[in-house]
Amino acid sequence: MRIILYEECVASSHPSRPPLIRRLLKFFRDHQLYTELDRYELELVLDEAITNAMEHGNRWDERKSIYVSLSEENDFYLIEIRDDGLGFTHRPDPLTKDPKKLETRGRGIHILQSFCRVQWNALGNEITLFIKKEQTCR
Amino acid sequence: MSVALIPENDHLLLVVHSSRIDGDNKIFMTVKQSDLEPGIFASIEIDLQAVVYLNSLGIAEIISVFRYFKGEREKLKMVLKNVDASIAKLFDVVELAHVFEIHLKP
After folding, report:
1. Structural domains of chain B, with CATH
2. Over the stretch A84-94, which tens digit does the pLDDT of each residue have?
3. Which of A22, A30, A131, B3 is the most exposed place for a label (fewest CB within 10 A)?
4. Considering the domain boundaries, does residue A43 fall inside one?
5. Is the Cβ pair A97, B93 closer than 8 Å?
6. What is the C-alpha to C-alpha distance for residues B66 and B26, in angstroms, rounded to an integer?
7. Contact A51 B23 (CB under 8 A)
8. How many domains in chain A?
């Protein structure tokens, strides 16, 4: 059974992004929700997923919102982030090892998938991060 | 200022004073607004001693600095020094650990 621990809806704007990430991290800390990710990795996955939703989903349109929820189910904490965008079809990202073709962008999803299991809804405007619980703080 | 630029002959040292590189693009803006000729440097060194957080936007900024100084040249040596272990792991994850020379914090 999935139990919702935290939920929030915020406007997609540059100023609202860092406080939202801080509130989520504080919730993890205050409620002693320990995960297999360390503090840096947890902030990183929250940051990448929220930035993706605000930037690519809502195009930083302050009239659009993102919905964030944190829940727990069995051995995992689930973070769902939904934007008001049209969704997208995820394709494997083209990381290149060739310094001559280095792109500046397009690494966010690769980072997310490297640190946790990731799932999208059919439309592609809602991402769920599955973060494994751990008994003690890392 | 969030970054200091210290040129010495054909070597440039950038010392980052911010604790986070996460999307404000201040390092790249400082570089672009400087009087430095990008093509004259054979090697670039970025000191990340103060940096405790870097995300994909920060990686984009580091790449922008690299591309700016490399220009049309085949290659450019870029060293990231005093890198936190977590940040070094991120460069490994995005397969850039072999593009830049990464020296961990002692």
Report:
1. 3-104 (3.30.750.24)
2. 988 776 665 55
3. A30
4. yes
5. no
6. 15
7. yes
8. 1
